[in-house]
Design goal:
By secondary structure, this protein is of the alpha/beta class. It has helices spanning about 5-25, 30-35, 55-70, 80-85, 95-100, 140-155, 170-175, 200-210, 225-235, 250-255, 260-270, 280-285, 330-345, 360, 380-385, 400-410, 420-425, 445-455, 460-480, 485-490; strands spanning about 110-115, 125-130, 160-165, 180-185, 215-220, 235-240, 270-275, 295, 315-320, 350-355, 370-375, 390, 415, 435-440. It is about 45% helix and about 15% strand. The protein has an eight-stranded mixed beta sheet, sandwiched between helices. Strands 11-10-9-12-13-14 form a six-stranded parallel beta sheet, sandwiched between helices. Strand 10, helix 14 and strand 11 (about 370-375) form a beta-alpha-beta unit. GO terms for molecular function: glycosyltransferase activity. Keywords: Glycosyltransferase, Transferase.
Amino acid sequence: MTKASVMVRVARRLRALRNLPRLRRTPLFDAGWYLETYDDLAGLVAHADVRNQAKRTARAAAMHYLVHGADEGRDPSAGFSTSGYRLQGWDETGNPLLHHLENPGAYAPLPVFDGTRPDVCVDAPVVLFCAHQALGQQFGAERSFLTMLERAGKAGLAVEVVLPHCHDAAYLAACRDRARAVRLIPYGWRRRGKVPHPTTVAALKAAIHDSGACEVHVNTLACDAPLAAARAVGVPGVVYLRELPQEDAELCARLGFDPDLLRTTLLEESDRFVANSAATAHWIDPGKQLEPGRLVTLPNRVDEALFDLPFAPQKPLRVALISSNIAKKGIADACRVARTALRLGLDVEVLLIGPASADLAALGPLPRNMRHAGYAEGPLQALALADVVLSLSHFAESFGRTVLEAMAAGRPVVSYDRGTPPVLIAGRGNDALPAAGHVVPAGDVDAVVQALEHLLATPEAMSAASAGGRARARAIQDEAAALEDAQLYANAYR
């Protein structure tokens, strides 16, 4: 560590110590909420003297927020949104909560952004949609949330949105384009043994009352606070299922639940469910015992513009893994695919399309026929870089939105036989549509390379997979469109 960096750290800590009394006087900083919401901070007070535990805990939490938390985008309580404060136009360096305490009328602590969707009937029923996250980059669940809003808007409903945070102005704009209003209210993910913090539930209850919502729809099973608020005011809570917990040990570990207990908890907390696939529907209701209307299956829909994206394979063939570039998405497998293809002399370039990540850096130097192409702003931009798409996840994808997007764009897919992607690619054997690519045994990198070799050597197979993918994607789009709105928004249609 350089002398200059030490001086910077000392200066930051001294500033934090000067501001500590002011922070601890304001109700907009809640040490208990802060530590409950960010469970990675549990070690802050692990060795504190038990006799002074409460005092030391509050001080440690406040110092963390002042020195690190605000810069990391963390919220100090359910009553103040760090990212929301910045999105209102405050672009200075420093701590937004301290700025608010010095300038209380400058910006709202919990902003409500007007939506820009013009065609909302004044008397339309209101549905409140709660996101699970809105980080700086959009992946499958975040894009699916936008399609949730679009669907409700097309059904003639008034859409209001709650984001727990938002670190992407473009994503906020996308939500506003599809809604009457967008609120920033901090809340975290569920954790076994913890109930949602009372101040979080109170803030969400106020949003339900203020919006006049007749239903609360929650994106993914990760968040319990919106469901608690909905129950408290007597409004139905609807969960959109996008995970297969029995196949995702990492998710279960993060939430602290085993799959069976998580299912039981969700059945107690939620009035209805919208499953994105037959697999997620089976997970929540394995015995098909739920009462009629409590569970519907709605496949993901993708951007219609993908169907018009030209398909003209290049040389070398661009083989892409489009993901968040974390280990469980199979980036190391893609690296092995590239090395094997290089050894065999296949004319392919393997692309990793997605953000930089620690897992990507851990791979070390990539083979010369492989490169990191960076994050693409959306599926159109990503798929314009690809001729063939890989699905190599180490867990069972509950749907496989990227696979469906590739199919809509006419890109053949090579997928491990795991989760729902194989069903998207080849169906269940009950239709005559061509397969959208190849399904190979999970973990079998050599089989992936053999599938690529077949596509390279057989142009007619490449064309058939492209056409088959588009036909299958169209059928899935039509299936989603055919689901009656009353099945999704039952309370709004009474």
